[in-house]
């Protein structure tokens, strides 16, 4: 899925006080929504440790003449304690920290700016290498596409203002898929993120929010900027880090694809203990409409995508999600709902449908669905026996809702 887009180069240089003037104008007229952060540059020229798994860290330590278990200490510090500076890893002796810091930096992607919505949603500009920035969104109590029916809701924690939350994660800077309704597509693909940059978005947000892994209910959705299955190795590398090193459950992760068949086939080979749930960004009731709004459908049509999805061995009670953006007059008609129901039945898969009302964006030639169209669509699908949920928009006032984020670029 689309949605998160932003790139420092696209915006030009920030102002002297470290803020981006275009961003401030375009995103938020209310300065109270922009949370100021320290913007010290990270260590230049040093290689990032963040992104290396425990085995790679052990090998690194062995190369420095240290016992391998020092690598495990390093992993613990970066991924569990979320230490972001080599010199602050106090489980390592000072001389070793100094030696390590000569060539290495933790190098975790850093949250450079925060926009906070009245509904509690936070949108982050996260700095990756090369001066590029991607966006990550924190949605407390938010349904970013996981269960969609409230079944993930947990008990309230007395210390926290939220009982569950969803983090929406980017996998590429820009995107090459060119879905016609998507603002991210306008950037084109600028570069793939590394596994460390993808996982680092998550760890930085966990750190900021004080999430206790294993206790707090946090879902991840890989539905931000980019097509995860066109950056497959890094995406799955990030998942492995988040599962094995950070301790998150793959069953609380959902990856959304526009329908990259070779990627889905590869995904089907992943072991269940390492595989997120799958969402297909369907968005159309048939090939004819889908080709118009998602040119990727000319390469892999709906049937080819569904054939690939059937290869994924679902866990007990697991369902495949169809994400469906309602475009006014294009994909939101009753007839379309009936076609989607027929399609869902024909797949033979346990599916649920998440409906998203399209948010308007500059230069995108579509309309919002008419009032009542989303509920009517939901009711028709539900009446046909298809589990259907409406994703409520989050963070509209900070342009964090689906489809809104590239407003920051357009100004
Ligand atoms: S796959 Fe399509 S919807 Fe998702 S980010 Fe790329 S262009 Fe946007």
How would you describe what is shown here?
The protein is α/β, with parallel strands linked by helices. It has an eleven-stranded mixed sheet with strand order 1-4-5-6-7-10-11-12-13-14-15. Strands 2-3 form a two-stranded parallel sheet. 48% of the residues are buried. The longest helix has 15 residues. Helix 3 packs across helix 4, helix 8 packs parallel to helix 10 and helix 11 runs parallel beside helix 12. The protein contains 13 helices and 15 strands. It is elongated and about 70 Å long. It binds iron/sulfur cluster. The site of iron/sulfur cluster has 13 residues, from loops.
Task: Give the SSE layout.
Layout: H1 8-11, H2 21-27, E1 34-35, E2 47-48, H3 54-63, H4 69-80, H5 94-103, E3 104-105, E4 110-116, E5 122-127, E6 133-140, E7 164-168, E8 172-174, E9 189-192, H6 195-209, E10 217-222, H7 232-246, E11 253-257, H8 261-268, E12 277-281, H9 287-293, H10 302-309, E13 320-326, H11 334-347, E14 351-357, H12 373-383, E15 387-390, H13 407-410
Parallel strand pairs: 2-3, 7-10, 10-11, 11-12, 12-13, 13-14, 14-15
Antiparallel strand pairs: 1-4, 4-5, 5-6, 6-7, 8-9
Helix pairs in contact: 3-4, 6-7, 8-10, 11-12
Bound molecules: iron/sulfur cluster.
